[in-house]
Amino acid sequence: MTTEFLSPSTPIDGRAEVFLGYLDYFRGQLVEKVRSLPADQLATSRLPSNWTPLELLNHLRHVERRWLEWGFEGLPIDDPWADNLNDRWYVPPSPDLLDTRAALIAALAEQAARTGEIVRAHELTDVGQPGPRWDGDEPPPLERILFHLLQEYARHVGHLDIVAELAGGGTGE
Questions:
Q1: What confidence tens digit (pLDDT) does each residue in 8-60 have?
Q2: Is 169 left (phi over 0), alpha (psi -120 to 50) or beta?
Q3: Could you give the CA distance from residue 117 to residue 20 in angstroms, rounded to a whole number?
Q4: Which residues, in sequence order, are CB contacts of 163 under 8 Å at separation 6+?
Q5: 53 located within any domain
Q6: Structure pTM?
Q7: Cβ-proximal residues to 80 (8 Å cutoff; 6+ apart), any chain
Q8: Do the Cβ atoms of 80 and 133 come closer than 8 Å?
Q9: For 65-70, what is the mean pLDDT?
């Protein structure tokens, strides 16, 4: 899942592919950092906010799903907030954290493929479907949603970089 960082001078066909390329890059960084952690650190929190690397991985998969499938496309999603329990990120306890990590990475890869399908099927100026995601507000255009996703990934991968450093995992790009 590792993708090279896109230099601003790298030729890319269209803004949508720029967004998708950066999303791929940040997803790849997320996965590499989570893979670099020892198994006992995957479900351990090192920060006062108390999230774990597995919870962050799960959260970002659901963020994409909420914004693009439930929000932009207006698809019915049984539990769009499945990454939350009692107002905090959540991954069910597991006796094998490495299996959980592998399953969450696979789910993120599936979501990435779905994101690519959605983005390539629309123009960046296309506006999302009205629905519960927007809580009565006007749906934004796809470009705004993708920009939001990029900042969410960049911010959280930076958080994970600190956690990985504290836990003895991989840091930096």
A1: 767 678 889 999 999 999 999 999 999 999 999 999 898 888 899 999 999 99
A2: beta
A3: 10
A4: 46, 47, 53, 169
A5: yes
A6: 0.90
A7: 62, 65, 66, 70, 133
A8: yes
A9: 96
Rounded to the nearest 10 degrees, what angle do helices 97-120 and 53-64 cross at?
Answer: 20
Would you say residue 3 lies in a domain?
no
Rounded to whole angstroms, the Cα distance separating 144 from 127 reads 9
Q: Write the DSSP symbol of residue 89.
A: E
Q: Could you read off the pLDDT of 106-154 as tens digits, one per residue?
A: 999 999 999 999 999 999 999 999 988 888 899 999 999 999 999 999 9
Domain count, the chain: 1
Within a domain: residue 172? no
- Residue 51, in any domain of the structure: yes
Residue 116: give the domain boundaries: 15-167
The predicted model gives 154-163 an average pLDDT of: 93
State how far the alpha carbon of 88 is from the alpha carbons of 27, 50, 67, in Å. 21, 9, 18
User: Where residue 81 sits, what CATH number does that domain have?
Assistant: 1.20.120.450
